[in-house]
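Q: what sequence does this backbone want?
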């Protein structure tokens, strides 16, 4: 069975990660608020510190492995003007440990 999800059943942390990615890029004013202080924006989100750090540092590979929806992750990169080259390189860097359908 192939798919574009790392986790068969997303974890609670993946839920919060995807919620953040959606809200930051789809709700008015949230991107501006996030850009002012990513740490403060994420401080009330109930997810592990290592995942907060992955979001703050734009660690695309870590967010993908944590269960980020690929479409939301791509929207995050577009919203923050992270190049497609950097996006793809980050995914390729973690692809070695993944099964291909």
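A:
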């Amino acid at each position: 069975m192939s798919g574009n999800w790392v986790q068969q059943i997303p974890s609670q942390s993946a839920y919060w990660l995807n919620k953040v990615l959606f809200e930051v890029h789809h709700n008015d004013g949230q991107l501006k608020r996030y850009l002012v202080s990513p740490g403060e924006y994420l401080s009330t989100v109930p997810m592990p510190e290592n995942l907060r750090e992955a979001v703050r540092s734009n660690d695309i590979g870590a967010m993908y492995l944590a269960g980020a929806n690929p479409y939301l992750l791509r929207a995050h990169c577009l919203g923050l003007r992270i190049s497609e080259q950097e996006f793809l390189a980050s995914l390729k860097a973690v692809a070695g440990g993944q099964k291909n359908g």
